[in-house]
Amino acid sequence: ETGVTQSPTHLIKTRGQQVTLRCSSQSGHNTVSWYQQALGQGPQFIFQYYREEENGRGNFPPRFSGLQFPNYSSELNVNALELDDSALYLCASSRGLQETQYFGPGTRLLVL
Amino acid sequence: GEDVEQSLFLSVREGDSSVINCTYTDSSSTYLYWYKQEPGAGLQLLTYIFSNMDMKQDQRLTVLLNKKDKHLSLRIADTQTGDSAIYFCAEQGSGYSTLTFGKGTMLLVSP
């Protein structure tokens, strides 16, 4: 157990809808990174938040957005869902930048 | 851009050693990681190695790093059926602290 929690565990949405995924970081961690893992692939970096500011973004469109709160928990929002957004969304927290990342159990999103 | 490559599948018998290989392209990598993923689960950190080291041992796990060839390996001694999972190699560059993952190696351990 890493102490990183994510909710919900599973979610089914239809194309065009919006979704919000949540992540609680491990105690003492101020950095949260989000990854998308499509079936049979390795995780792909979406973006990272450090002390409530976005600190880097992968090759994902603007309809993927996020927030980090003062308690360092984080949200990932996806607008205008597409079928290809179906994936496991993983959140990882770390004590700071360039520190080891510890992953939560993920949220499995299915878009129909 | 940065790339991480792994072989896709490895099958071993219980009690044998397993060696999972990984190559990467980013010469500025600072840390290299091995994560384990069981079906339907998130990623479990197994071990990591700093880029100025060439070997790290942690119980049944041995990580070897050849920085010149940008080659990383994970050796699991006395492999057990509970080791069956997908193993991901990941590199962390010196710029952003993000991780770049390979596609994973599925390890199947038979009794």
Keywords, separated by commas or semicolons:
heterodimer; A: 112 residues; mainly beta; seven-stranded mixed beta sheet; globular; B: 111 residues; six-stranded mixed beta sheet; five-stranded antiparallel beta sheet; 11 strands
Would you give an account of this structure?
The complex is a heterodimer of chains A (112) and B (111). Chain A is mainly beta and 112 residues long. Helices cover 0% and strands 51% of the residues of chain A. In chain A, strands 2, 4, 5, 6, 9, 10 and 11 form a seven-stranded mixed β-sheet that branches. Chain A has a four-stranded antiparallel β-sheet with strand order 1-3-8-7, with no helix packed on it. The radius of gyration of chain A is 13 Å and the shape is globular. Chain B has strands at 4-6, 9-13, 18-24, 31-37, 43-50, 55-58, 61-66, 71-76, 85-92, 99-101, 105-110. Chain B is globular, with a radius of gyration of 13 Å. The mean pLDDT of chain B is 92. Chains A and B meet through strand 4, strand 5, strand 9 and strand 10 of A and strand 4, strand 5, strand 9 and strand 10 of B.
